[in-house]
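Annex B.
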Amino acid sequence: MRLSPGSLLARVTLAPVVAVAAWMLVAFPLLCLGQLSPLTGLLLGVPAVAAALALLPRLAPETDDTPWWPLLLVLLVTAAFAAVQLAYHSEQLVIRRDAASYAQYTAWIADNGFLPIPQQRELIAGDDPVLTYDSLAYYQVDDVVWPQFLAGAPLVYTLGFWAAGLHGMVLAPPLAGALAVLTFAGLAARLVGARWAPLAALVLAVCLPQQWVSRSTYSEPVAQVLLLGGLVLACDALTRGARGRWSAGHTLALAAGLSLGLGLLVRIDALRDLLPVVAFVGLLLLARRREAVPLGAGLAVGAAYGAVAGFGYSRPYLDYLADSLNPLLLIGAAVAGLTAAGVLLLWRRGLPRLDRPAWLPTALAVLVVAAVAVIALRPLVLTQRGHGDEATGVYIGQVQQIEGLAVDADRTYEEMSLHWVGWYVGWAAVLLATAGVALLVRRTALRRDPKWTLVLMVLAWTVTTTLLRPAITPDHPWASRRLVTLVLPAFVLFAVYFLAWTRRRTRDGPQPWPGWLRTTVAVFGAAALLLPTAVTATGIMTYRMDVGSIAATRQTCAEIPAPASVLIVEPNTASKFMQLVRGMCGVPTAYVNPPAPETVHRIIGEVHARGRDAVLAADRAEVLLPYLPPGVEPTHPFDVHTDQDPSTLMKPPAGAWRFNGDMWIAVIPRP
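Glycosyltransferase RgtA/B/C/D-like domain-containing protein: predicted structure tokens.
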């Protein structure tokens, strides 16, 4: 049977989430068992992905009223996005922020297939108290080291590492970002209409934060595929409907729950985004919809994966986040409990009515507009302060000095959050999206657009909570990460919806507009979304981050003899390079603290006594000289001087700052 363009678009846009979720369902248990390898991935992961791709996309609802051009344009936008991000991909391996942390995590599990990371202290100097093994984003716990973040994104980027080593790993995020754009196009096609999907995909693809996170090993592109894809699957499940004991609707609902729950395997803050899904399951139960049980079951299984990843393999990180995570866990438990209680109390009455009294739907729409206005006006009446972290305050003070701002190191800039959205997608998008949400809230309350209910609940909740408290170091483009996963897609989706509604209203209303006028309005609306977004995006189109780091890493590893143990004698190098040397060069590594000459010489003797060469490392040659015997000269294998992301506070980022990555080593062979 020949597929229509609409059906093909539905299937193609389902493929990313189906493939990623299937891979994670298999790969994470393999990692837990210490058996993650190219062989087990080939024997178990590939069949799981192939089976899921053969089954699930074909369950998407059939449509036959879509021409070919939306499908072709969506694929063109996706391919163009991938090409641009591949051309501008970064090589962040030296840990300063999260991208390199994820890169080191990926390289470790791809090469070794297990966690935690052994310290191998017995190959250096045993339990000598002057040695430490932790570094930025890597926690020393007893005799092992745990990476900071969750395993989801590294499990996906591992496929790139297996395919082509470090070069393949850094090329995986652009492809993941392209799949996220494709998935978003599928969501727009289902909710707004296939003819509007290319515009939605293009605006998101042009958006600076979407491009930026897709150039480095960040977790957001993978989270987007799972969360946006989970909403796509849920839309299809509700459209197909679950009938009988088991049907396509049941399968799609189960897959939707799994995909949404697996978002927790990628980012722990996805817990906040999933709270409305729990409430929505309760609404489905009250509506006697058969999709409720498989959706809830899938959500529970996916969330269980995330819980194991967090509390089993990233526990030190969760302990660090305890002040914000513990209240979120309590809120999650409260939402689950209130949902269960609400279902029991309202079981006989059914769904609550939001269209009674008659003024309530309009009041809710007005409340949406008022809430957006309050958030937008916050900078005029409020300056938020309190990082809760001294190092963050010091850094913000430095950026303020660079920008010529008054130094207020404790300022969080959280009141600027909606202005950040305006920077990246334009104020026209903010206004159109606000109108779109208000309209949707009213129509949903009147039960006129039930297909929007889940998406509206998730996106409205996430946008509101994120804008009220971004909870991130506020320099850009770094702070834009908080907007990438769902906030910016939400604004784009709602803005495009309002444009589509306006066009339909002017065509089908009591006084239809002339065709040329409708087209003109649509074109101007699309331009209002695209042009500000494109102008801001030019700020990152002139540089690549950390170029040369892969070659420098290989050179460093080549100059470390086998067998050897590396002793870092300077704190900055220990923070940024320890996991790179330990994981990518595969040698035992520790920081000598304090690095007094007599202490370093004693540890060198311990290394030699174990039949190994000692390698000293620091960021400057002169730091190494006091420790070196006659005839030993330092070398400079890691010598990278290139571009890195800027940091801005009161304007969108543009251009690059300079990155200086230096590591000198000195090999002290056994006597």
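The CA atoms of residues 397 and 408 lie 6 Å apart. The two ends are 76 Å apart (CA to CA). Further annotation is deferred to the next reporting cycle.
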